[in-house]
User: What shape does this take?
Amino acid sequence: MRILAVASECFPLVKTGGLADVVGALSPALEELGHEVQILLPGYPQVLEQLAQAGVIDDYAELYGGPARILRGRGANGALDVFAIDAPHLFARAGHPYVTADGSEWWDNGFRFAALAVVARELALGRVADYRPDVVHAHDWQAGLTPAYLVFDGRPRPASVMTIHNLAFQGQMPPEWLPSLGLPAWSFTPDGVEYYGGIGFLKAGVYYADQITTVSPTYAREIQGALWGMGMEGLLASRAGDLAGIVNGLDTSTWNPAADPFVEPGYDVRSLTVRARHKAALRERLGLVGDATRPLLCVITRLTWQKGMDVLMDAAGAMLEAGVELVVLGAGDPGMEARLAETAAAHPGRMACTFGYDERQSHQLLAGADAVLVPSRFEPCGLVQLQGLRYGCVPVAARTGGLLDTVIDIDEHPDDATGFLFQAGDAGALADVAARVVGVFGDLARWQGLQRRGMAQDLGWKRAAMRYVEVYERALGARG
Ligand code: ADP
Assistant: This one.
């Protein structure tokens, strides 16, 4: 199959979150299965800089307010085949892809990402060079208009698949933009692009795509209900038969404790005792001075409501009382940083915080801490618990979304267990799980059993890529 992936991010060219990791890793995994993948991206400055030998394959005199050229080149040392939209009026902006320096959304995001979908349609319909895909795979709201434009065009078209990485971001635009976005007036209905009185980009994608996926089976179920459906539960439930949940893989070459440039010396499942050296170095650096035989729990996270940091702060005292040590590496909301710092200051020597997005530290925490705590309220897939499994850093995770699909609780399935699960959004449950962790940690054989089973898991992308191929086949069948 020839697959056109349409996305606003792709690691290593541009990344703000897990979406980029998926787009960047799924493509090579599909190619290993014998398929051909091209990725269409906005031509942000960092994307254009990293494209080797890019050539112009198409141009537009006018694309939402200015001229544009479509480039084709290779990214990630030649591993990725990329189409980029070189449209300076839309994408030549330094910094974050979606928000201005003061943190608000760019006013014209609707037009910027409609341009992405327009170019996707032209490529998909074979109007550019001799390219023509079998399947168009749209990722998140930024690519959401793609399946809609394909249907509205009315001509024979590739199959379309819409993937939801996080339903919290939906791309809602004002209704009066309908004509300028090139959307037909008749499409402004609940059976179309209309969504709560505006134009819903993700809604349009979910409505018009042949197949829909999200990033874990549990999240696929959760988003069909009122609690986590974020207003789209009715539509998603009505398309339940076309909605699949596929757990993300992990880039196991980047996340490999035996060959990690940030973790020296490296270790594997046969040399788990090396972790004690990393733990000692970590405790010294963080100023943790309590009983060294306590389990050290790390948290590696964006600081947002989704990630449950307020719940952690409420529970911190009781968790420390139960006998764990805590370290938080967090980036984001300054108010949350300040409150976390206060919480840590109230427990000197037993809880530490560092702030900022720090890749080196995240690797070192996974190699040195005993467990990784993931207290999310909701979590479409979650990567950090997979990283924990790979590093023998036992996941202690909220019972939600992809966390529930990837962590097996020790009390529920003692022989297959890889970690601990607890009720999401509940400070009391966090204190209870801390006590359970302390109990199991005291029994070396049981603890090492958790580590060994986690490290033995196959977390790579091949399995997920095979599932996506099945979805593409269903989409081709559905299109008829
Ligand atoms: P999300 O994409 O919602 O932030 P995921 O768990 O899917 O959550 O992915 C988060 C990724 O970002 C993981 O690779 C995690 O290790 C990394 N990460 C999150 N916060 C930080 C941080 N403060 N410093 C370094 N890495 C971080």
In short: Residues 17-18, 300-302, 329-331, 357-359, 362, 381-384, 387 surround adenosine-5'-diphosphate (CB under 6 Å). The longest strand covers residues 52-60.
